[in-house]
Automatic annotation (TrEMBL):
It comes from the Bacteria. Transmembrane segments: none annotated. Coiled coil: none annotated. Residues 34-81 form the HTH cro/C1-type domain. This is Helix-turn-helix domain-containing protein. InterPro entries: Cro/C1-type_HTH, Lambda_DNA-bd_dom_sf, MLTR_LBD. One of its GO terms (molecular function) is DNA binding. CDD domains: HTH_XRE.
Length: 273
């Protein structure tokens, strides 16, 4: 436990908050910026003395439950919450459910890339946002937005060159999600359905595949423009456990011309489910 670093971090985050940020009245004029220690203690449901000792580098080793309460009281972002646990020498508790929202700056990124097909997937392989070129290239993303169900239940995978490999990639990500979000009911229902309906899914799950996102080349078969050889690159959004997949073609290639043709069929906005 890094007591001095923990104390400094707590003081810094407390002093950044205003009473209005946490739903408290401003009250009389404050001599120092931020919340008072007693206000943080009240929000975290711990004693003032306990919290004060943490900020004075002489506190006890806080439990994960107390750290969760303090993180909530200080309105810590996911990355800050993880940092708090590391300073306290504790393993972060699993979030109750995976993040299914798309941050505005990520949606904005999709809109600013009209010549690149881009989708955002959450930890369960649900496509939660996409741009027009992605829909023109990959087809309807609303009727069945979950790529795991499309791969194992419908046999509907857009790439003609990596159908077998895709199964292991999907299972590796779902296994990781199951470990991180054991209380997410929607994820649990998805896994139950996949286990019941797909022997291939069960077999892959049992061998525990491991996969790291990176650069891949695949061929997509499109009903209008035919085979399209594309590059797929993944940007990981660690704070939300999401991935942005960018699909591009080599400049001057027939695939690049096909993507330009498809780009004219969509509108200009990013979509989400």
């Amino acid at each position: 436990m890094a007591r001095q670093e923990l104390a400094r971090f707590l003081r810094d985050r407390r002093e950044r908050l205003r009473p209005a940020d946490v739903g408290l009245p401003a009250g009389p004029r404050r001599r120092t910026p931020g919340l008072r220690r007693e206000e943080v203690a009240q929000l975290a449901a711990v004693s003032v003395d306990y919290y004060a000792r943490l900020e004075q580098s002489r506190g006890p080793h806080p439990s994960p439950r107390v750290l969760d309460a303090i993180a909530a009281a200080l309105r810590l972002a996911p990355a800050e919450r993880g940092h708090l646990f590391r300073l306290a020498g504790a393993s972060p508790t699993a979030p109750p459910r995976l993040v299914r929202r798309v941050r505005p700056h990520v949606a904005g990124l999709l809109r600013r890339m009209p010549d690149t097909a881009a989708i955002v997937t959450d930890a369960s392989y649900q496509v939660i946002a996409w741009n027009p070129l992605a829909e023109a290239l990959l087809g309807d993303l609303r009727t069945e937005p979950n790529l795991a169900r499309r791969r194992f239940l419908a046999g509907d995978w857009p790439a003609s060159t990596d159908f077998a490999e895709a199964g292991a990639i999907v299972v590796a990500r779902l296994r990781a999600a199951a470990a991180r979000y054991p209380r997410d009911e929607r994820l649990a229902r998805l896994l139950t359905k996949l286990r019941a309906a797909s022997e291939e899914f069960v077999a892959l799950w049992d061998v525990d595949p491991v996969h790291a996102p990176g650069h891949r080349v695949k061929t997509l078969t499109h009903p209008e423009v035919g085979p399209v050889r594309v590059n797929c690159d993944v940007l990981v959004i660690p704070e939300d456990d999401q991935q942005v997949v960018f699909v591009t073609a080599d400049p001057g290639s027939s695939a690049a011309r096909a993507l330009r043709r498809l780009a004219h069929t969509g509108d200009t906005s990013a979509n989400s489910v």
